[in-house]
Amino acid sequence: MKPFLGSAALLAICVSVTARAADMPVKAAPLPSPTYNWSGFYLGANLGGAWTNGSLNIPGNNFYGGITEFIGGVQAGYNFQVGHLLFGVEGDFDGATFGHPPLPTPTLGTVRQNWIGTIAGRAGLVQDEWLFYAKLGGGWVHSNATLSFPGVNWQGSNTSAGWLAGVGVEYGFKPNWTLKLEYDYIGLGNWTSPTVPPIQLNRDLQMVKLGANYKFERGLPDTVTPRAGHSAEPSEDEDLAKKSQNPIADLVSVPFQSNTNFNAGPFNRTQEVLNIQPVIPLRINADWNVISRTIMPVVSQPSPFFNNNTNGIGDITQQFFFTPTHPGSLIWGLGPVFTVPSATDPILGQGKVLLGPTAVFLTTPGHWVIGVLVNNQWSVGGDPLRQSVNQFLAQPFVNYNMAHGWFLTSSPVITANWLAASGQQWTVPVGGGVGRIFKLGDQPVSAYISGYYNVVRPTGTPNWQLRAELSLLFPER
């Protein structure tokens, strides 16, 4: 954690010349006040994934294993800070999106959640720009359900209330802006259908949400000391290019990466994946940063059964890299990666909560940026009827920076599905492309285009990929 401000650890008591006064105890200094002010009203937005492990208690039903869904909405609240303690109240409202079960799987019952609302008290511990909090309150969920099996054909809707408990971490990255990551559990109990026989549905809900808040009261004074490690002068093109090519650089960026994959599925259709990938450095102290990297895919996925595509949002992945601010010639970062089942349709995601380790290693000799990003994730929750997951990813990257902001790039994404049959596990692409650092008005951007051919791939998966990326860069001033 960031060390407390001030160089004095103990406050000495004035000592007189007498021996009696010299025996007086030395008292510890009070903790210095945090530099970031969390008090006041705030308003924000969130998105993420939600899932249930509940079941429809239908005799002989083996086809309903809960639901997974994409959620997105707004939140508002008020914080009252007393030193390093924070108390507050927050309410949020999220819409939920979930499509039909994967065809042609039969089912005796389906459930669709339409919206989720919560209100809760928050209590937390403040350490400058960081807030660690817990929340306790209530939640409301509106659901539709359908039952269809011999003797029962029923549809209904219901709004149920339950208790809510959650934990989260929030970071003030600008005077009026904060980012948060939160886990919530809503205990809803059972919903019993008015049928004969009555059917009980357990709908306890888990959610992981990423959010941003706007504080109406500034968290920092108008004049603050520039952070160590941040340059006060604009970067040169090559320096900015190197930072944009470094996954764990101390640079805020928002890449929009289009991956067009050709000849996918039994009908040789085109798959399109637009990854929205905000990268935000979070400062722990003068020696360590945490780099937050979120990947939200917007997908057009060919159907495995019909000659058409399904469009929507896929499963959201979150990575955190703990990295030293002064790493030397080898730059590295280690941390966790997890994926939440946020797909708006089952065909667009895996229906599982994934968790695992991730790491980045790179070096920047001369005009080069050379490194590799690796991770492995295992399924640890989600729909029990969906296939378990054990997947590996390695992305080596090589960039050569030239004059006037131009650069050559190669960053193939190598993947392995360890649970697939022999000969169907690996996807290994080769290729590369060209890009440039430039400005759109006053906004620095990085853009490139590249192509890859999958020399090793599972049957029925794409053979060619066209990748194009535009990244908005926000160098510190």
UniProtKB/TrEMBL annotation:
| Signal peptide region | 1-21
Bilayer-crossing regions: none
Highest rank taxon of the organism? Bacteria
Annotated InterPro entries: Beta-barrel_OMP, OMP-like, OMP/PagP_B-barrel
Q: Which keywords fit this entry according to its UniProt record?
A: Cell outer membrane, Membrane, Signal
Q: Where in the cell is it found?
A: Cell outer membrane
Span list, region Disordered: 221-243
Chief subcellular site?
Answer: membrane
| Annotated ranges, domain Outer membrane protein beta-barrel | 9-216
Q: Which PANTHER family match?
A: BLL7405 PROTEIN
User: Which family does the record claim for this protein?
Assistant: Belongs to the Omp25/RopB family.
The protein here is known as Opacity protein-like surface antigen
Q: Which organism is it from?
A: Bradyrhizobium japonicum
Upper lineage: Bacteria, Pseudomonadati, Pseudomonadota, Alphaproteobacteria, Hyphomicrobiales
